[in-house]
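Exercise 7. Predict the joint structure of the components listed below.
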Amino acid sequence: MGTALNALIERGAALMCWADPFFPDPVIPEHVKKATLEAIDVGMGSHYTMPIGNGELKKEIAKKLKEYNKMEVDPDRNIIITPGSDSGLLFAMMPFICPGDEVMVHEPSYPSNFLNPKLLGGVTIPVPLRAENNYQIDIEEFEKRLTPRTKMVLLTNPNNPTTTVFRRECLEKLAKFVVDNDLILVVDQAFEDSVFDDIEFVSAATLPGMWERTVSVFSISKGMSLSGYRVGYVVADDKIMDVMYGCAVNILGATNTASQMGAIAAISDRSFVKEYNKIFDKRRKVAYEVFNSIPGVSMAMPESSFLSWVNISKLGTSAEISKYIIEHANVVVNEGTPYGASGEGYLRVVHGCYKDDNVLYDALARIKKALTKLAEEKGVQ
Amino acid sequence: MGTALNALIERGAALMCWADPFFPDPVIPEHVKKATLEAIDVGMGSHYTMPIGNGELKKEIAKKLKEYNKMEVDPDRNIIITPGSDSGLLFAMMPFICPGDEVMVHEPSYPSNFLNPKLLGGVTIPVPLRAENNYQIDIEEFEKRLTPRTKMVLLTNPNNPTTTVFRRECLEKLAKFVVDNDLILVVDQAFEDSVFDDIEFVSAATLPGMWERTVSVFSISKGMSLSGYRVGYVVADDKIMDVMYGCAVNILGATNTASQMGAIAAISDRSFVKEYNKIFDKRRKVAYEVFNSIPGVSMAMPESSFLSWVNISKLGTSAEISKYIIEHANVVVNEGTPYGASGEGYLRVVHGCYKDDNVLYDALARIKKALTKLAEEKGVQ
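Solution:
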């Protein structure tokens, strides 16, 4: 933790700024805990796996990809285990981006998406998603930013912070755009486990012509709440993987051995994810009700995950209101601006924190009280 | 494991090709095991730490740096925890290398060192170390390869595969070369824990003018035999760290939480490293005796770690002899060629594998028998 954050924790602030489910409470499922502990206990946890990952884990992932993502892959050829999906995401982009190459990044989006192209010498081209359009893809916004240097589209699906699940018709248009212009798609599906209201979740790699030009990035950090395990995986075509296998040790090293054993247990029995989703489903409805009952504050019903994307623009800027909430409600939330220019006037509130619903509801009530008072003071109705 | 390697394991081959101490046997020290298990057991192991790493671990590292490396650093400013030292090594180079920049890499060296500059768009300039010079640095070899594009020297100290501990006088010359030509030094000290015969180990960052232009990369994988934990750390000046802190999450993500708790225990009580070094010390002497008793085969006494760098050039090429050893001794060793052009005619044999000395000695005896027969057949004396 940073020093400022530590000071806030010491004064008992509620942290709703960390996309780490149930943080800081213990929630490791028993079967996952058992597999992890055993790997340490029998001693194999201190030895490397191959940098490309544990073979048994890759087999379990291939089964899950088939069941959940409708992707049929060869576990020995199309999967690399990564030490979390952050390094996996940059790794997925590395083979393609040469200096000056342009990467289209929808905004709002995960903050790392804006910096990643630049870290590789590329250029980030933000492409707006609009609240009026439920933050779905407007393909014309992509088309009008196409240049001879466009190389890649970077997609976060479901989106963070907006929780948008990109619909099939949007993804089909995006896929056609990618294929027609000979681009690469890197898609971060870290939040795919928690999609509500029976919205169809479509893995972009399954769309026509996309398998051979898509690198899909996955994580067990979010829906499975195993962020401290640091296990992610990257899935791609043989040709792309030939390059990635050749530099996996240089860029990633190997992934934690005991965590990979825990991940085998987690992915082979994912029933606990359903239980978590019931909790997140209940909480999103509470958050929706609370925030929309505050004068001048609004949010759409989250489509996925455990995030609230809250419009507070009638009360002040992101910086002003997040500071106000720390001071008057003792809760830490995220300013909207790191998620893109259109994040000004928004807050990201992680309603997935804490195991006990009541801790969360208390924090939401404090925010409501503080912002209601502020709205009154400002005469916002 | 790769498929070919799996087949060899199934037929009971001894693996002396993995720089993973005591692999595949269990050796986690009790205090380290306890700390790791507890992190999982109380549930915090499933939550992220900050991408820059656990603050308590950084404090313990700072103490160790002062004691062992004679480096005084601010744990909150000069240390980033990395998910192993492989990703740490590339991360250490990233802020400095622009397309076309030249990176001087001594050879023999760790294989990743030759690819890393290219992955960043740079150019690898191999600089020979000579067996006749005990693989110490010959500064003239660096000087004559200096160009206006030279940006960095990449050093592995102690060296892998030669086990060379670079002597103070060599490092002083190298430091002067780096300072005089306004270069950056990235030094990988993954093998620093195991140095024999009271050879002085000098951390390059402590030499005059070097702190502000050195990035030092460390690991708990080798001397501490905690490779599967995936914990390394990078140490540098404030100015360099300002850049690294700004992109740590993008490039590295966070490091495994439970492993960091284990690493706190390991680094705060390093007595087990002394015990390991006694084992490695004994084994290097056995390996030295065995290999030098084979006609046409020779090796120098290892100065560090648990590696034998064996000259088999009178019997054949690296590829031929490693293949012969698999077939006739059922032992897998490393060909010398990935370590640099001068590695032809050499093998790297990991004598740190297996907990039971006798398993290792049996494997060495099989190699001796096979190569002695080969030498006879070839008439090599």
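Discussion. Chain B has 13 helices and 13 strands.
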